[in-house]
Amino acid sequence: MPVLVKDQQIVADPWQLLESIPDYVPDNAIVPINQLSNTNANGAWVEGDLEVDDFGEELAKLDLVAVHFPMFADGRGLSLGSLLRSRYGFEGELRAIGEVQPDLTPFMHRCGFDAFVLENELAAKTAIQCMASMSDFYQGSVIQPEPAYRRKHSH
Amino acid sequence: MYQYDDFDRNFLKERVAQFRDQTDRFLAGEIPDDVFQQLRLRNGLYIQRLAPMLRIAVPYGTLNAEQLRKLASISRDYDKGYGHLSTRQNMQLNWPELAEVPDILAELADVNMHAIQTSGSCVRNVTTDQFAGVAADEQIDARPYAEMLRQWSTYHPEFEWLPRKFKIALNGAASDRAAIAVHDIGIQLQVDENGRTTFDVYVGGGLGRTPAIGALIRENLPEKHLLTYVEAILRVYNRYGRRDNKYKARIKILVKAMTPEVFGEKVDAEWDLIKDNPQELTRDEIDRIVACFEPPDYPAVADATSALASKRLEDPAFSRWVQQNVAEHKQPNYAIVTLSTKATGIPPGDVTDVQMDAVADWSETFGFGEIRISHEQNFVLPDVPQHQLFELFELARAEGLASANQGLLTDVICCPGGDYCSLANAKSIPVAEEILQRFDDYDYLHDLGPLDLNISGCMNACGHHHVGHIGILGVDKRGDEFYQISLGGNATNDASLGKIIGPSFSRNEVVGVIERLLDVYVDYRAEGETFLSCYRRVGMDPFKERVYLEQPESQSYARAG
């Protein structure tokens, strides 16, 4: 059973991911982006290769954006997540769905993802450990824009 | 050299622990094979035909004596007592045990070394001129900028899972010894009229199945923008590079599909939005890294010109070696020495633990404890006082590292090929071996002059066959090993890709074919003309005629056609 990790903790998932649109769309629905205009949903899911320049402003207004990773090692969703955060100012929940392997979550996390749907509880616990396995990095990221040298050599 | 501080050391320690944990979880069955494959590749670990292969990073080919001694001891303790110098200036071990790899990485970390990003679809070891910092024809030392790129690209949050591998090379000298034209990004450094360092950026070069020469997309980029501009290129590539077919996934395919002009515009549009972000290099940071590569205080040594000249008259073997393997140094009375690994009977690039220890010792006796690895798979000692050249020569000769063939026909670039590599269609080392055996007459080799002969065992082109003046590519024809030969490739300034001469040859024909190609050159060359310029002038026809038509009884044409 899929397990949600949010802000490094296993939590119950208050959202409901919809593959298509039923007659009644609940408040907590995550709908496919192409259905967004037909509903009042505050959550949308997108593929990693979405042309963010066309949808970024629209997505930035939502409470939740879920990015689908179609396969392990497909890094397009990392660029998408980074741009949603840094270029379009998205402040809601950025959720990784699809092929989310624990060892990929540290990369996703640094690209601004704060929620991850893992395959099961073991994977969820491993992901939390993975995200804590490295304490600092050379280059800046969405969650720490300053590269290490600007922090360590500035004082 | 770059000096590791607590940050760098801690980063490495954590990365080693992370990989140990990944290996443990894999061995416990918690990580599927295909996922672990990607994780281990990002630590340089392949599973090969006979055993795992571990590729250890040697950033831009520079290491110190302590590090080389560590490589010697690791190859002794965990392997069969030898390593292989790769065309990305790295060192590969052919026989490590998977379960011991975390221990090897921990030992490497003790001397500030690692195997991070030496494979996998990420930014690979950044390479540069093996003579950087000491070459007489250098305008600016590229190593500090290679180091800035190394740090920036290490464990990058966004660019560790690219469509395909990504190779960056820099060159700061008049002569391009880093092959920047055949890299995903090639950077030529220069100093402008105001004394500022700037970069010309080429993109979309590469070898492999679809070889291409890089296109210039940005001229005179100021140095502070190095990382943001590369970030813009990587982002465009990460978002739009093909992922549906691994043979079409390199950036060169994207650049070609978009055209370099449109690709450049796309990069510029992205760069406009990010160029002032905190990745922009500060003056302090540039100065800090550049300071790590300041030249050492060269003790004044006496002019050895006349002593050297008389020694050369006395000893023709020494004289040939000086002529071929000793390059001009920036500093008067010092020299740059290439220690060739290309000796008869040894696979090109293979070095034993004993040789590694010896080279480490010489780097201290005849320099400041620094060693380089060239992409031609040789060792280089960058700071040898001229008056000690003969002493070094004798020691190197005793260790089999004094072949006087740098840049000559027998300085073969060669991949591990079918003897080791699971991708290869054909063996490459035995072909190199036959060539080294057949052409062992130095006077003949020297008469032929500069000649790059490169051999790859398959179209992945690890042996850079496309840019050999003569290129040899192993191909599989109904289960038999055949070899396709190309002419006219060139990896340096005025780079070009070789053209295939015609139908391929069986292995026992290859050396004879090379011999006939060389005969054509000797017959046709004008005074002082190199093989490459002669080929460029006379074209393919005379070579083709001699190789195919003079041998009507040869079956190669019919068989392979």
Largest sheet of chain A: 8 strands, mixed
Strand content of chain A: 15-25%
Structural class of chain B: alpha+beta
Strand percentage of chain B, roughly? 15-25%
CATH fold category name of the largest domain in chain B: Sulfite Reductase Hemoprotein, domain 1
Shape of chain A: globular
How many beta-strand segments of chain A?
Answer: 8
Structure description:
The complex is a heterodimer of chains A (155) and B (561). With 155 residues, chain A is an alpha/beta fold. Chain A has one domain. Chain A contains five helices and eight strands; from the N terminus they run E-E-E-E-E-H-E-H-E-H-E-H-H. In chain A, strands 2-1-8-7-6-5-4-3 form an eight-stranded mixed beta sheet. In chain A, helix 3 (105-110) links the parallel strand 7 (93-98) and strand 8. In chain A, helix 1 (52-60) packs across helix 2. The N and C termini of chain A lie far apart (48 Å). The relative contact order of chain A is 0.16. The mean pLDDT of chain A is 94. Chain B has four domains: 6-110, Sulfite Reductase Hemoprotein, domain 2; 135-292, Sulfite Reductase Hemoprotein, domain 1, CATH 3.30.413; 305-398, Sulfite Reductase Hemoprotein, domain 2 (Alpha-Beta Complex); 427-559, Sulfite Reductase Hemoprotein, domain 1. Chain B has 19 helices and 21 strands. In chain B, the strands form four sheets. In chain B, strands 16, 17, 18, 19, 20 and 21 form a six-stranded mixed beta sheet that branches. Chain B has a five-stranded antiparallel beta sheet with strand order 1-2-5-4-13. Chain B has a five-stranded antiparallel beta sheet with strand order 3-14-15-12-11. In chain B, a hairpin with a 5-residue loop joins strand 8 (185-191) and strand 9 (197-203). Classes of the chains: A alpha/beta (155), B alpha+beta (561). At the A-B interface, helix 2, helix 3, helix 4 and helix 5 of A face helix 1, helix 2, helix 5, helix 6 and helix 9 of B.
